[in-house]
Amino acid sequence: MPATVVVGTQWGDEGKGKLTDLLAGEMDVVVRYQGGHNAGHTIVVDGERFALQLCPSGILYPHITPVIGNGVVVEPQALLAEVDGLTARGVDTSRLVVSGNAHLIMPYHLELDRVTERYLGKNSLGTTKRGIGPAYADKAARVGLRVQDLLDPKIFRAKLDVALKEKNAVLAKVYNRLPLSAPEIAERYLGEYAPRIAPMVGDTVGIVHDALDAGRNVLLEGAQATFLDLDHGTYPFVTSSNPVASGACTGTGLGPRDIDRVIGIAKAYVTRVGAGPFPTELHDGQGELLVDRGQEYGTVTGRRRRTGWFDAVMARQAVRLNSLTEVALTKLDVLDAFDTLRVCVAYDSGGERFRLPPYHQSTLHQVTPLYEELPGWRTDLTGVTSAEDLPAEARDYVAFLSDQIGVPVRLVGVGPGREQFVSFAA
User: How far is it, in rounded angstroms, from Cα 244 to Cα 169?
Assistant: First the structure.
């Protein structure tokens, strides 16, 4: 049975965790396929809020095997803290499986991330300073340490010595930082982390393929989103991996034919954290209203998100890049307070009209959004349980977005709770 991918279509924070949690009821395995503990998924279950960073959203279901795939970078302390936090709240984490091929975030990655971002000054990228980028850089340079290295102290120490020799030279000579101690790092990782993480390590590629071969349902969950993708996002204001749907293959060990459903998640408006272009960004009271009503603050960092109107130009590109089969629209209820809504249907640059994002970043930074206006509904949607009960203006807004992006909107979120979704007929 082919797998399903859930992917963000904007700049993240679209509600992937909530949708994954909703779909998890019919799934058997849920796999996180890229990113690190810089990505937060917030889920509200029976009024109780769970903020996940590394653990797949499906971990809240006792029947699911939650998997951290090979495409993820793992900071051991963050992983164990999250597991301990969930366990303390009564969540069974014993089913969690971590790929031995996932790369480790090391102390020098954290230090390099911090000093590099500070060194860039006004040209900083807005990184969360959690070592994600440096860890992926070492992976590409083939000097990274992997989760499986925790199971072989000799190999771990040998790899650490090689990596740290170069990292300490950079930290000392470029950034004037004190060198890090290999024995101290090895003692912490091998003595403290390895014994606890070892029972979690497994052959995740085999687990996922065996599940599909047995006709079980598998859900692949990305972090971040399409326009934070290293190759297809608004570079260099991107993450260091591939959140797009094709990244689900490399991040789990599946092939393209193992996937037949790709669900794109989009907010009913757009948000972004950190620096980078944002054509529909609002700098007025309407933007502040979106922040307040949507509680637009980062799950992990607490940073205020930038807000703007829905951008159909971006959404069309997300459809193409991910081969989306459908869209789930979240936070429609946040728009309850608006008399008029605007949707960006194209960009203008020097009289040239773009229905898809221009390939050149200089053009993208200078475009003017072209809007269509639609009436708001000024009605509280949080109690709505069916699409038929939505105000006509809300249904028209959803239909307009679907028509603009070219794929059907199948689910619409009307509140933060697990059950606050309404379905639209296929």
Answer: 35
